[in-house]
Amino acid sequence: MSIAVKICGLTTPGGVRAACDAGAAYTGFVFYPKSPRHITGLQAAALAALIPETIRKVGVFVDPDDDDLRQILGHIALDLIQLHGSESPGRLQQIKDNFKLPVIKAIAVADNDDIAYAKTCESVADILLFDAKPPISHKNALPGGNGLSFDWQLIKTTDWHRPWLLSGGLNENNVMTAITASGAKAVDVSSGVESRPGVKDSAKINDFMRILT
Description:
This protein is 33% helix and 21% strand. It starts with a strand and ends with a helix. The strands form two sheets. Strands 7-6-5-4-3-2-1-8 form an eight-stranded parallel beta sheet. It has a single domain (4-211), classed as Aldolase class I (TIM Barrel), CATH 3.20.20. The protein has helices at residues 13-22, 41-48, 66-73, 89-99, 112-122, 153-156, 175-182, 202-211; strands at 4-7, 26-30, 56-61, 80-83, 103-109, 127-132, 164-166, 186-189, 194-196, 199-200. It has 213 residues and is of the alpha/beta class. Helix 1 runs parallel beside helix 8.
């Protein structure tokens, strides 16, 4: 089995080195001030200097305007832009046109309505990412990285024409179950490999990656 892994929300040199050494295909940096994993463009640039060119660098944004994107891209050469807000297909296309970078569109999933929304984004996004939609009762929920999962069968039973990643509450104990249930060929992990919010744990990263090799 060959599963590509994105380790997201990296904030420290140790976390970056652990992700790279363990064989991650993607590294993710969060540029959303409300997240405990938020870092600045300057901090991300310093971390990116530790990443081999073979590992893709992803910037995670929530409903950014062009100035937000331009400011970050002035510091770090990202390989992909991940959009985790309520961006429309038209906005996805605008960002692709303006910044000449491929786009990952994150979709918060709870039911079939969310799958229908994902299909509207599929013709524009280069990659889709499926995460769990927090329930209304979940106060102060973030757009992602909440450690929640969803009904993986919703995406397995849909015919997708773009590559996609599975996210949402993944860890070493459930990732194989999630892959089997969803049919995922790529996964995104953040809170599942942390010792506390925003701090990656190298042992947990290694354990997670070892499950997939």
